[in-house]
Design brief:
By secondary structure, the protein is an all-alpha fold. It has 22 helices and no strands. The protein has a single domain, classed as Up-down Bundle (Growth Hormone, Chain: A). Helix 4 runs antiparallel to helix 5. The radius of gyration is 21 Å and the shape is globular.
Length: about 425
């Protein structure tokens, strides 16, 4: 939650600090500048995915998780103390840029390390349910950020928020990350990682080992494409869309996002548990069909939502659809790779897809708006979802895969033409490691 709070709070408060780091001018142009820096963080995620994915496969999931939160804490401190344009000119922008680069490194490894940890630490028949809590915690980070924003909007004047109030959440994030650093140092390693693996120690977490699973790596990129774009459209960009395009007051737009995300977080475990019963593919296909055919109508109707309730209702429709992807994408990706390359296999392809589609979502949306073709962004989201739909329809089911035997072709675990073997029983006492 703290890790993703630090990542998302940048987008949530961008409307308040955009004017602090850039000279006076068009408000949309200022938002595009801050969105551009937001996107730069995404382009560091593949580097973080490679670096921290390697650490996760060679040193353990615990080591990677501890390192990611250290980087995130440092970046939050930098943003909290960044000088404004009036004080240091574009020097403040340079500090923002460095902070986002550090955040990109951190999140590039965080997603894979946590997805791998949750999947490996769960009993075979509960992996969908357990891994769904990744997006519960990610969304909780956004909710916490929006909650702080709502409190600040009601306790500070608009001038105070634009002047210095926006720094408060970054201070909170830095302090929270320090606490999480201590907690993660006392985590147990997963049994699956500790168990013997067919990947030689010297090849664990290497690109050479990952290249033996090229098909799975490209599959992760393709199945992430539509999902991550839809997710960032209806979470980080939604508040700006409601205030900058729909015309709702900033306070109302923030409250809509806050309430919608609360419901969204509650849906994740339900959908994850459902995937343990019916499989992953039905949920992914449902998401892709909904995102392909509903994105344009929902965004068009949102444009005319003049008050809180219509905006909330339409936002919930979109997030219910997105749940089909978010609730299970972590375990689906982890189930594709063997232990020795699982963290890297999830991290690097996912980070590449996020850099290309998730990180640029807000910038592309604002570009369409600035060009007078705002509706084009909706068609762009729908088109990417359609591409992912093709992937979901052709991929195999991963629910019953035995994580300890993924990649052992002789045993049929990696036979893409056949059904995955039944998962072997897991000792309940070791199925869910706890913190010390």
């Amino acid at each position: 939650m703290v890790e993703w709070f630090d990542w998302f709070v940048y987008a949530s408060f961008a409307t308040y600090f955009a004017g602090s780091f850039f000279p006076e001018g068009n408000d949309t142009a200022k938002l595009m500048n801050t969105a551009g820096i937001f996107a730069v963080g995404f382009f560091m995620r593949p580097v973080g995915g490679w670096l921290l994915g390697r650490v996760g496969d060679r040193r353990g999931r615990k080591a990677a998780l501890t390192l990611t939160v250290t980087l995130m804490s440092a970046s939050a401190v930098l943003i909290a103390v960044a000088p404004t344009y009036a004080v240091a000119g574009y020097g403040g922008v340079a500090v923002l840029l460095v902070a986002r680069l550090l955040q990109g490194l951190s999140v590039g490894g965080e997603y894979a390390a946590s997805a791998t940890y949750l999947t490996e630490a769960s009993a075979p028949g509960r992996r969908g349910f357990a891994s769904s809590f990744q997006y519960v915690s990610m969304t909780a980070g956004q909710i916490l950020g929006l909650g702080i924003q709502i409190i600040l909007q009601r306790t500070l004047t608009s001038g105070e928020l634009h002047s210095w109030g926006w720094r408060i959440p970054f201070v909170v994030g830095a302090l929270g990350a320090a606490v999480i650093f201590y907690l993660r140092r006392n985590m147990l390693e997963t049994e699956v990682y500790d168990a013997a693996d067919t990947t030689p120690q010297e090849e664990r977490g290497t690109l050479r080992a990952l290249l033996r699973h090229k098909r799975e790596a490209f599959l992760v990129i393709a199945l992430t494409m539509g999902g991550t774009l839809a997710y960032y459209t209806y979470t980080t960009y939604l508040t700006k869309y409601l205030s900058n395009s729909v015309g709702l007051p900033k306070q109302t737009a923030t409250l809509v996002s806050f309430c919608a995300l609360l419901v969204f977080a509650c849906l994740q475990p339900l959908a994850g548990a459902l995937s343990d019963r019916i499989g992953r593919r039905p949920l992914l296909i449902t998401f892709a069909v909904g995102a392909t055919f509903l994105t344009v109508p929902v965004m068009s109707l949102l444009k005319h939502a003049g008050s809180f309730w219509p905006a909330l209702g339409l936002s919930l429709v979109a997030l219910v659809v997105v749940t089909g992807y978010t609730s299970i994408n972590a375990c689906v990706k982890a189930e594709l790779f063997p232990t020795g390359v699982r963290s890297l296999g999830v991290a690097l392809p996912y980070a590449i897809a996020n850099a290309l589609f998730g990180g640029t979502a807000e910038y592309v949306a604002l570009w369409f708006k600035n060009s007078g073709m705002e509706s084009g962004f909706s068609w762009y989201v729908a088109g990417c979802a359609a591409v992912s739909l093709v992937v979901y329809l052709t991929m195999r089911e991963t629910r019953d895969i035995d994580l300890k035997r993924v990649g052992e072709k002789a045993d049929g675990a990696a036979d893409t033409a056949g059904r995955a073997p039944e998962a072997e029983p897991v000792n309940p006492a070791r199925s869910a490691p706890t913190t010390g």
